[in-house]
Automatic annotation (TrEMBL):
GO terms for cellular component: plasma membrane. It is found in: Cell membrane. This is Molybdenum transport system permease. Signal peptide: none annotated. Its main location: membrane. Residues 52-257 form the ABC transmembrane type-1 domain. NCBIfam families: Mo_ABC_porter, modB_ABC. Keywords: Cell membrane, Membrane, Molybdenum, Transmembrane, Transmembrane helix, Transport.
Length: 267
């Protein structure tokens, strides 16, 4: 019996409609408040342009770090067995369920004044908290799991005979990785990269505690939106315009992911 033939109990339509409305109506209400005629001027205003610049640069850098760190980590997890694999998966998943402010506090405890590494770095003249580097680290902390989980899932679904055949023909492990493994997991890698960038762009909690909210240095788009509703130099109309940017990025990311998923399914 098909799923369509099985049908849906009539009583489920009401909570389903309420759930859909809970997700959709706040976004519609937000879009309705935007003065669309003023959007172009708001987007080129200095405070908006600075927040966009900081967000795009830091999110792109954090995404690059996620690729450099996440692909090896995903490979290790995918090849691990037993308790080690379980422990590594739990470690990677932790930032997804950890409150962002706790993540920021953890980063401060490691790299801040009096932290495990903070005082040692200070002696070397290196100060990380409340700098642009802190924004990148916070974004990487929260975005890395998205890349690792996507890549690890693709690796676990990969048939090992392709890699084994290449190794049998004399290919080195590095050659197998870059010429066989990565091309075969490309859809998962692209999906993880998009999700990581989107998550980094929208990061707020860990950034607020670990990096602060200095205009032109650590004030990202989410921080600028928060600042607007505290009356600190950014109007609420600007906050709505910045919110529109984040929504547009999220919708674009979902559309790209949907397209990649559909292409992979047809293949």
């Amino acid at each position: 019996m098909s799923e369509r033939a099985a049908g849906i109990p009539g009583g489920l339509y009401i909570p389903a409609a309420v759930g859909g409305g809970l997700l959709l109506l706040p976004l519609i209400a937000l879009l309705a408040r935007i003065d669309w005629a003023t959007i172009p001027n708001m987007l080129v205003a200095p405070e908006t342009a600075n927040a966009l610049r900081v967000s795009l640069v830091t999110a792109a850098t954090a995404t690059a770090l996620c690729l450099v760190l996440g692909i090896p980590l995903a490979l290790v997890i995918a090849r691990a067995r037993g308790w080690l694999a379980t422990a590594l998966r739990a470690l990677v998943t932790l930032p997804l369920v950890l409150p962002p402010l706790v993540g920021g506090l953890a980063l401060l405890s490691l790299l801040g004044r009096g932290g495990v590494l903070g005082d040692w770095l200070a002696e070397l003249g290196i100060r990380i908290p409340f700098t642009t580097v802190a924004v990148i680290i916070a974004q990487t902390f929260v975005a890395l799991p998205f890349l690792v989980i996507s890549v690890e899932g693709a690796l676990r679904s990969l048939h090992p005979e392709y890699e084994e055949a290449a190794a049998t023909l004399g290919a080195s492990p590095t050659s197998v990785l870059f010429r066989i493994t990565i091309p075969l997991i490309a859809p998962g890698l692209v999906a993880g990269t998009i999700l990581s960038f989107t998550r980094a762009l929208g990061e707020f909690g860990a950034t607020a505690l670990f990096a602060g909210n200095a205009a032109g240095t650590t004030r990202t788009v989410p921080m600028a939106i928060y600042t607007a509703f505290n009356g600190a130099g950014v109007t609420q109309d600007t906050a709505l315009a910045l919110s529109l940017i984040l929504i547009a990025v999220a919708v674009t990311a979902l559309a790209v992911l949907r397209g990649r998923t559909s292409s992979a399914a047809r293949a």
